[in-house]
Amino acid sequence: MASTTANSASLSSLLSWFMCCILLLLSSHLYVIKAKSIPPIVKGLSWNFYETTCPKLESIVRKQLQKVFKNDIGQAPGLLRLHFHDCFVQGCDASVLLDGSASGPSEKAAPPNLRLRAEAFKIIDDLRRRAQKECGRIVSCADITTLAARDAIYLSGGPDYNVPLGRRDSLTFATRKTTIANIPRPTANTSTILTFLATKNFDRTNVVALSGAHTIGISHCESFTPRLYPNQDPIMDKTLASNLKGICPTRNSTNTTIMDIRSPNLFDNKYYVGLMNRQGLFTSDQDLYTDRRTRGIVTNFAVNQTLFFEKFVFAIIKMGQLSVLTGTQGEIRRNCSARNSDRSTTLSILEEEQKGWSEF
Length: 360
Fold this sequence. Notes:
This protein is mainly alpha-helical. The protein is built from 14 helices and two strands.
């Protein structure tokens, strides 16, 4: 009996040791997965950039956006789109926020940006004002735009995630030609988009994941009516096409419609379910499922929202670091729509900021 008890105790100890080993292996594996789910951070950015200089920054942005979205959730996709259109052109430097000047028309005036929500620009500058009131002029409009996009995703039901901060604002804006060349058209096919985004170091999974931002928001008719007139795109679901023709009776209609017919105000994976059912609005959307190179990724995201969220977070953090200005590059604008005219004031601000940088 004693021998049996001893054997049982020995077996129990062995099982406990074995389970501990398994847990250690699993925890190690999970850590690797987690580490791989975050792209490398650009030099000059930091996860805790404002930890001592403006510790309440993220709380200020999120609390205000909660109020904004409670009143109008439609502002969320507007802020997200603003971030995309800023980063793709000449980097995440808030150049899209600048008004035009004697040097030429602004990025806002370029055709791809004419439909950006006017209210989105006002929201960013209001957030800038609130941050400056709390911390002084040390937070860039570029960082505020990045935080606003992150919170637009989260407060619409999407994933919450950290973003590296420390961007600075540009002194110039891109030309009309450069702006047009760097924002993919909704009529573009997958080959065009993959080729273009490869120049910015995005792979196929990145591209399909970022396209998932179309799970929220609206579109103007002109972005998709080429699929309706003069001939209907045979790939488009017939019921969807019929409904869209009711909303957009002519090719030049100025009406709008939702981009995700299943959950237009919720950031989820239903956009991909729509693509599998031939209900993508843009050619650039639907062709992701038609093209064999991206079809499998669309399918995986459609059946696994957790996977989509993981890949989207990776891709948008990566996007948020495109050609950023850091350190002493650029400036911290006093007004998001205009560069600082007083360079001596800017230099004094740089001296103040240097104190904060020495801690990171």
